[in-house]
Amino acid sequence: MEKNDKSMITKAIGHVSFVMRKCLFGILSIGPVPAHIAFIMDGNRRYAKRHALHQDSTNPGSGHRVGFKCLISTLQYCYEMGVKYVTVYAFSIDNFKRDPQEVQSLMDLMKEKIDELLTEDSVLKKFDARINFWGDLQLLSEPVRLTAKKAMDMTVHNKGPVLSVCVAYTSTNEITHAIEASVREKQENAPIEVSDLDRNMYTAGCLEPDIIIRTSGETRLSNFLLWQSDFAHLQNPNPLWPEFSLRHLVWAVLEYQNVHGYLKKRKGEIEKNK
Amino acid sequence: MIEASVIASPILGVVFCLLHVIVSLVHTWSHLVHQIQCLIISSGLLSKYQNINLNRLRHLAVVIDSEDAKNKSKVHQLLCWLSDIGVKYVILYDIEGVMKKSDKAYEKSSANPSETKCMDFAPNMPLIFDMFGMTVEIISYTDGKEAVAKGANYLCSNYLKNQDDTLNKLGPKFTEPDISSALKAVGHDGPEPDLLLVYGPARCHLGFPAWRLRYTEIVHMGPLSSMKLSAVVKVLYDFSKKHQNYGK
């Protein structure tokens, strides 16, 4: 009986939270809502250290597990708000330099979480979302690569918002890959144009990000979406990634709304001159 | 139902405006705190800001909104400050190339024009000159993606010339050093800045060459019209204390 009461209360709180969020997002949508938000999910390891999670040699991924929970809730809020594209920087090519045990733990976690995202009660299913994996996927271990491919195949026809996960990714690697593909295509004397490179980026077909958020207060992009970020509003809130919550997301959108007119004007001027 | 939405819309509108008033108040407070910090720095009370270690700052970039960049005296003032602080290499960027067209103004207004050596203006190429012992490189939007396209064409023509080569039969395969070499060959091989200052209304790099931004710390300085030497000093000091993992 007590368990039933508790679950009813939890459900009721969930409903009330949902209604309040709907009101809040309704208010925000009076101004421009970003179509694409990208996240550099920085701070998982520091969070684990700070909160003395079991970040030891037997479980180097504990901070990342908490970070994944934050990703799910952030995705939910973004999709409820009407954000069509969410991109996350899950694993950089540079991250392969980390301790092999940590890298393996991250690969295992990634496989586990991709499988979780494909279950019936996941946020992707709820919103009929599509998932992309961008990066040099050949660098991933086979189980992870196959799981990622399975996830992309299963969701390719979904009509809802899009989650793009950058894994084994760097921007310079992406640009190199786009140049290779453009050279491969070129047969006649026509020169390679910027539009050819755009078309061969992993991100082709996706809108450029309106906001790029790096948590933990760090100010660099660390080789993430450098080609696509010409007119993105770069934000670096202080909270560590597992601490990033609804209020930080709302604040990010309000900040974006403040500068949207300026960025739209600058972008329009460049596109007019092309 | 119609009456409910008629009542709700203005209320939502008021709440929306209230949220943005809160944002403005927070910005005003941050600006005030920043002004006080700048005042303390410029008073010379804190010795740590007097001798900043610039060993890690090999190259500094400054992105300036093109409207702000038309204020040549402000840009020149900024260059003088950076030179006095001891910065050795500055990359100036504005999206429209306003500063490229103004380079002669920096030459004429320097104390000793013979200390500045300018190349002729070419809109699609970087402009590099010396000013007060500091190298100044001026670039614009055309030095970004279009430069990478030029590099791609350079690699493509080399690839097609060597198509009989066994390796090439497997298809083009380039590495990041190949791209860097190609950019050098087409005259766009500028260094990666360690730190990038953005002068304008928003923290946005406005198309700064992507190939050069991998690990650059990006700091928003506000409008050029209200630039302060102490603000620049603070940013350089904070940078000197930064630590990067480079992915590790």
From TrEMBL, chain A:
<comment type="similarity">
    <text>Belongs to the UPP synthase family.</text>
</comment>
<dbReference type="Pfam" id="PF01255">
    <property type="entry name" value="Prenyltransf"/>
</dbReference>
<dbReference type="GO" id="GO:0005783">
    <property type="term" value="C:endoplasmic reticulum"/>
</dbReference>
<keyword id="KW-0808">Transferase</keyword>
<dbReference type="InterPro" id="IPR001441">
    <property type="entry name" value="UPP_synth-like"/>
</dbReference>
<dbReference type="InterPro" id="IPR018520">
    <property type="entry name" value="UPP_synth-like_CS"/>
</dbReference>
<dbReference type="GO" id="GO:0045547">
    <property type="term" value="F:ditrans,polycis-polyprenyl diphosphate synthase [(2E,6E)-farnesyl diphosphate specific] activity"/>
</dbReference>
<dbReference type="GO" id="GO:0016094">
    <property type="term" value="P:polyprenol biosynthetic process"/>
</dbReference>
<dbReference type="InterPro" id="IPR036424">
    <property type="entry name" value="UPP_synth-like_sf"/>
</dbReference>
<protein>
    <recommendedName>
        <fullName>Alkyl transferase</fullName>
        <ecNumber>2.5.1.-</ecNumber>
    </recommendedName>
</protein>
TrEMBL record, chain B:
<protein>
    <recommendedName>
        <fullName>ditrans,polycis-polyprenyl diphosphate synthase [(2E,6E)-farnesyldiphosphate specific]</fullName>
        <ecNumber>2.5.1.87</ecNumber>
    </recommendedName>
</protein>
<dbReference type="InterPro" id="IPR036424">
    <property type="entry name" value="UPP_synth-like_sf"/>
</dbReference>
<dbReference type="GO" id="GO:0005789">
    <property type="term" value="C:endoplasmic reticulum membrane"/>
</dbReference>
<keyword id="KW-0256">Endoplasmic reticulum</keyword>
<dbReference type="InterPro" id="IPR038887">
    <property type="entry name" value="Nus1/NgBR"/>
</dbReference>
<feature type="transmembrane region" description="Helical">
    <location>
        <begin position="6"/>
        <end position="26"/>
    </location>
</feature>
<keyword id="KW-0812">Transmembrane</keyword>
<dbReference type="GO" id="GO:1904423">
    <property type="term" value="C:dehydrodolichyl diphosphate synthase complex"/>
</dbReference>
<keyword id="KW-0472">Membrane</keyword>
<keyword id="KW-0460">Magnesium</keyword>
<keyword id="KW-1133">Transmembrane helix</keyword>
<comment type="similarity">
    <text>Belongs to the UPP synthase family.</text>
</comment>
<dbReference type="GO" id="GO:0045547">
    <property type="term" value="F:ditrans,polycis-polyprenyl diphosphate synthase [(2E,6E)-farnesyl diphosphate specific] activity"/>
</dbReference>
<keyword id="KW-0808">Transferase</keyword>
<comment type="pathway">
    <text>Protein modification; protein glycosylation.</text>
</comment>
